[in-house]
Amino acid sequence: MDPLTTTDPERIDEYTLDRRRREEIRVLLHACFPDVTFARTRTYAKQLPARRLLASEQDRIVGHLGLEHRVIGTETGPLEILGIIDLCVAEAHRGRGTATQMLRWVEALARETSVPFLMLFAQDRRLYNRNDFIHGTNPLRWVKIHEHEIIGIGEEALAELMVKAVGEKAWPEGHVDLLGYQF
Q1: Which residues of 149-159 are buried (b: 16+ CB within 10 A; e: fewer)?
Q2: Whole-angstrom Cα distance, residue 134 to residue 36?
Q3: pTM for this entry
Q4: What radius of gyration do the chain's Cα atoms show?
Q5: What burial letters (b/e) apply to 67-95, b meaning 16+ CB within 10 Å?
Q6: Which residues partner with 161 through β-bridges?
Q7: Rounded distance, CA 17 to CA 48, Å?
Q8: What pLDDT digit, counting tens, does each position of 36-70 carry?
Q9: Distance, CA of 106 to chain centre
């Protein structure tokens, strides 16, 4: 594996992104997710993430993930999570550890801020399994959003759910209410 040549990530609040960076993110998302309609025209699927983590090389974005800090409802009470959204790496930078490094940055952020869990939804789990995420089997509830409209409430276990405990707490069993949209 080649050593990473990217610098430390830029943690940036969504509302501070300039037009050039938004376009770079949109182009990267479209390249990484060519079959996903939203990536052709915008930088988010359902909702803007609160923050983004950007890995850059020579002032070009080569890695991206959106971050959602949220409280979710569980049978044992509310839990804080950092939600990981649309993790992707430019094709020329894949296989060099960039995605793993970005996950480590998020984990370090969670530890620094005492957020006990990371959560994401992924169809391809290989990267996340290698980084100690587990498949969550919890029944979920969330607000279903399609093209800027709420279309209902979803209630089912989703095979894409991946979680990682960052602190001492174990991921709870039972029903989880996302208290918002599925990111």
Answers
A1: eeeeeeeeeee
A2: 25
A3: 0.91
A4: 16
A5: bbebebeeeeeebebbbbbbbbbbeebee
A6: 121
A7: 12
A8: 888 889 999 999 999 999 999 888 999 999 999 99
A9: 9
